[in-house]
Write a structure and sequence with these properties.
With 71 residues, the chain is an alpha+beta fold. The protein has one helix and five strands; from the N terminus they run ββββαβ. Strands 4-3-2-1-5 form a five-stranded antiparallel sheet, covered by helices on one side. Strand 2 and strand 3 form a beta hairpin. The longest helix is centred in the last third of the chain and has 20 residues. The protein is globular. 8% of the residues are buried.
């Protein structure tokens, strides 16, 4: 189950941030094009909240670099 997803595009590239519900907790995933940059499994919701805050910072940086929201 998807709890958060944000995709950005720039030229022919995509960058996706996801938080997925996993049977063992929550999976935090970052993808650049087809490559998984980060894949972490958390069982502590507080760590998921920190990852989500880090995503907010990362999204601001991507927008500043000209990446467009691709919802």
């Amino acid at each position: 189950m998807l709890t958060f997803q944000q995709t950005f595009r720039k030229d022919d590239h995509t960058f996706r941030l996801e938080i997925l519900l996993d049977p063992q907790g929550w999976r935090v995933v970052q993808r650049a094009d087809a490559t998984v940059v980060r894949d972490a499994l958390y069982t502590d919701w507080h760590r998921v909240e920190r990852a989500r805050r880090a995503f907010t910072v990362e999204m601001s940086g991507l927008k500043a670099e000209g990446w467009l929201d691709a919802r």
